[in-house]
Write a structure and sequence with these properties.
The complex is a heterotrimer. By secondary structure, chain B is mainly alpha-helical. Chain B is 76% helix and 0% strand. In chain B, helix 5 runs antiparallel to helix 6. The longest helix of chain B is centred in the first third of the chain and has 37 residues. Chain C has a domain of 174 residues: P-loop containing nucleotide triphosphate hydrolases (Rossmann fold, 3-Layer(aba) Sandwich). The chains are: A alpha/beta, B mainly alpha, C alpha/beta.
């Protein structure tokens, strides 16, 4: 497959003091065009730092070493967030303007990156609302973020992320704040949109089972380092590292052995 | 401590802190450098500044040492400003916390009282209070606090209303904590930062109000105040303008210093919150 | 005590939202036996957190009865309610939000001991150390600030605080949802240990059926403020009958079985 981007020895520090461990330590990873890659890890694993670094969204004090090379026809320019990369955050309220109607917010992305007029942008926004399967697109266009549920807001955030037709979609814990039913719906939606538009997907998650359901490849991070990366089936069935094994064991699926011992308790 | 270092990295904070430190030094050193009564006659009247080095800033209409008066005036200004602001913040924080936490009728009554105080201009209230009770340092402090506690009360109430809904307050109820302990031990300390952010404005306003009261002759007659000095100088404004200008500059610098330091504190806490 | 530890019946709570009355709890009834775990599961907005807060009297119901330890829990007020709270504790989802941001571990554990007069001032440090040990934390942690310790440690402190007053029932509101999976397993084991040794009952609120199935005796599945179905936790989750139960089971993330992924 054709490469989309190549990360080499990427180290990111938020704290300039060297006695503190970097958030990400010499990570190297290749992403191919059109693939669905999951990046999983627990808190402090550096998975979100990696996502932000790829999207060029790291906060200013962060210090970056190493390289991220893109194989996009950009004339050597860095890819642009919003146009070339769509980003979906965990908390949609954080990325949506509370006092701007949904139609305006999505329209703004379209006008900025595609140079469409106001009317055309609004029509395009309506299409996008429909694509993310929000009921009653016309009402949603005029609605404000607080009038929507968490799941609906996340759909709007996804619509805004794909509005300019990015090559790469990054979803950073995009379903973690949602309940299981809505989470499953959003995952299905992402899978569909990625397939229809031929986008590359980087799916950041703490949930190895959820990641395995969606991704073709899984990269496991821990304490800022890449632990292992491989085909989903291999990672899930024959992990090479003890850490991945422990993540799989800790997953409490509906078929897991119960922790509760049902023999009646001995009265004290 | 790193908080102090962060504070001093903000340029206006450094400037403000410098002015306030100077003022504090003046206030503290006044009885050492100028022992005795600053209102005593020290030389010939209306001596201009920089003529006699034993009286560097000259003398006023009655021949009192202007520099000594300036130093002793700093004591009054600072004492009244800080005491009035502290009283206003204390009353405001307690009223606001009770109103916000209790809700219902208590909230309604306390906030209507707050409204009533807010509809009367603070300076008018202070003026009326001092005229009725009579001028003394304590009365001036109370008068100023009476006109300024409403701002902190409103801010405290708004903050308490939002904190009241947090999990840790529910947690305190679950372990059976008494409502008054929840209000004053769990909620109030966490509601204080935005209230304290008001303190620079209140201290500055209190210092100005004190000066204005003294200017109108309603200050403590037994103490030198900057407002009183300006009033003194007013009668000879054409012949000896420095008598009004010198305490005027001191007043302006003090208020500026308080504002700048307050701004610095707000800035430091804001950046710390932003980073964490 | 005869009969259930907690018996809830006809519990209702309505909220006004955009001019309409919305039922957060609608005629809810359930029992919890001493030393057992009842899980309340359901999607967001199904009313599970509202029910938890009603049971704890953090909010007051519009209608219904709550009997706790053979007494009418809703009839209690003031000092009597505060005293009875010792027996009915809670652990929150976000252990950082659940503590006063200025608190230290020692203070957090000192409060319940002081309020309920469980130990004299001089004896409390020893009690605090014992509580920390009981939940698997080093006793030196007592002097640390809450915001300095890790998320898993905080949730252990929350559990230590909940058991400080020797409760018979602890409400766990999504208590393991925000934790890393590796930490989650250890916290669940600690909770089961405590249940075995102290006979504590749990009302376990969760949207995660995998966790519910692993640790609960019984489950009630909620939808729109009503109980859609209830019963033995494993029986209900393995073969759900209600629409919402089926939807929750279908939506739970599943690790691909080796045979399927190999192809």
């Amino acid at each position: 497959m054709n490469p989309l981007l190549s990360i080499r020895d990427l180290t990111v520090r938020y704290d300039s003091r060297h006695d503190k461990a970097p958030a990400l330590r010499s990570a190297s990873l290749d992403v191919s065009v059109g693939e669905r890659l999951a990046i999983i890890g627990e808190s402090g694993s550096g998975k979100s730092t990696l996502a932000l670094a790829i999207a060029g969204l790291l906060p200013r004090p962060a210090r970056i070493q190493g390289s991220i090379d893109w194989f996009l026809p950009l004339d050597g320019k860095a890819p642009l967030g919003g146009r070339d990369i769509g980003f979906v955050f965990q908390d949609p309220s954080g990325s949506l303007d509370p006092v701007m109607s949904i139609g305006k917010q999505i329209g703004e992305v379209i006008r900025t990156h595609l140079g469409l007029g106001r009317r055309a942008a609004r029509a395009r926004a309506a299409e996008l609302i429909e694509r993310v399967r929000l009921p009653d697109p016309r009402a949603v266009l005029n609605a404000y973020p607080h009038q929507l549920s968490g799941g609906q807001r996340q759909r709007v955030a996804i619509a805004a992320a794909i509005a300019a037709g990015p090559k790469l979609l990054i979803a950073d814990e995009a379903t973690s704040a949602l309940d299981t039913i809505v989470q499953a719906e959003i995952v299905t939606l992402i899978r569909q949109l990625v397939a229809e538009d031929g986008m590359t997907l980087i799916f950041i998650s703490h949930d190895i089972a959820l990641a395995a359901e969606l991704a073709q490849r899984v990269a496991v991070f821990r304490h800022g380092e890449l632990v292992e990366v491989g085909e989903t089936a291999d990672i899930v069935t024959k992990p090479r590292t003890a850490y991945t094994r422990s993540l799989l064991d800790a997953h409490l699926g509906l078929d897991a052995a119960p922790l509760l011992d049902l023999t009646p308790p001995v009265p004290a | 401590m790193s908080a102090i270092r962060r504070f001093l990295r903000v340029p206006e904070a450094t400037a403000g802190a410098f002015i306030l430190a100077l003022l504090l030094a003046m206030a503290l050193l006044a009885p050492l450098l100028f022992p005795g009564d600053p209102q005593a006659i020290a030389g010939a009247p209306l001596l201009p500044p920089f003529h006699d080095w034993s009286l560097p800033l000259g003398t006023d209409r009655l021949g009192r040492d202007v520099l000594a008066e300036l130093f002793h005036g700093a004591r009054t200004s600072l004492a009244v400003g800080l005491a009035a602001a502290a009283a206003a913040l204390l009353i405001g924080a307690v009223v606001g916390t009770l109103a916000g936490f209790a809700g219902g009728l208590v909230d309604e009554v306390l906030m209507r009282v707050t409204d009533a105080f807010q509809t009367v201009p603070g300076f008018l209230l202070a003026l009326a209070f001092v005229s009725v009770v009579g001028p003394s340092l304590g009365v001036v402090v109370a008068a100023i606090a009476l006109g300024t506690w409403t701002g902190p009360a409103r801010v405290a109430r708004a903050e308490v209303l939002s904190i009241r809904e947090r999990d840790y307050v529910a947690g305190a109820r679950v372990i059976g904590m008494h409502p008054l302990e929840i209000a004053f031990r769990e909620i109030l300390p966490n509601a204080l930062p935005p209230v304290l952010a008001l303190s620079s404005v209140i201290v500055a306003a209190a210092i100005l109000t004190e000066a204005a009261l003294s200017f109108l002759g309603l200050g403590d007659p037994n103490r030198v105040t900057w407002g009183g000095m300006i009033a003194e100088g007013r009668t000879v404004l054409r012949t000896a303008p420095f008598l009004s200008i010198v305490p005027g500059i001191a007043l302006v610098l003090t208020v500026l210093g308080v504002y700048l330091a307050g701004e610095g504190v707000v800035e430091t806490t804001a950046t710390r919150r932003g980073l964490s | 005590m005869n009969g259930p530890l907690l018996a809830v019946s006809g519990l209702s709570k309505h909220y006004r939202r955009a001019g309409k009355m919305v039922a957060a709890a609608d005629d809810v009834a359930f029992d919890i036996q001493p030393g057992q775990t009842l899980a309340l599961a359901g999607p967001s907005g199904s009313g599970k957190s509202t029910i938890a807060r009603l049971v704890l009297r953090l909010i007051e119901p519009d209608a219904g009865n709550i009997r706790f330890e053979d007494a009418d829990f809703l009839a209690l007020g003031g000092a009597a309610l505060r005293a009875r709270r010792a027996r009915l504790q809670m652990v929150f989802q976000d252990p950082l939000a659940a503590f006063n941001p200025r608190a230290t571990v020692a203070r957090v554990l000192d409060d319940p001991l002081r309020i309920h007069g469980i130990a004299e001032r001089s004896e409390r440090p020893r009690r605090i150390a014992a509580l920390l040990e009981r939940v698997g934390l080093p006793t030196e942690l007592a002097q640390r600030a809450i915001h300095e310790i890790s998320g898993g440690q905080r949730q252990r402190v929350a559990i230590a605080r909940a058991i400080a007053t020797k409760p018979s029932l602890i409400v766990l509101d999504e208590a393991v949802s925000a934790l890393d999976v590796s930490v989650r397993g250890k916290i669940l084991e600690l909770l089961l240990d405590l249940q075995r040794e102290e006979g504590i009952a749990y009302l376990f609120i969760s949207h995660d059926l995998g966790v519910v199935r692993a640790i609960a005796h019984r489950v009630a599945i909620l939808d729109g403020g009503r109980i859609a179905e209830s019963g033995d936790a494993r029986a209900v989750i393995d073969v759900p009958r209600s629409a919402i139960g089926k939807a929750l089971v279908a939506a739970a993330p599943k690790l691909p079985a080796p045979a399927r992924t190999a192809s």
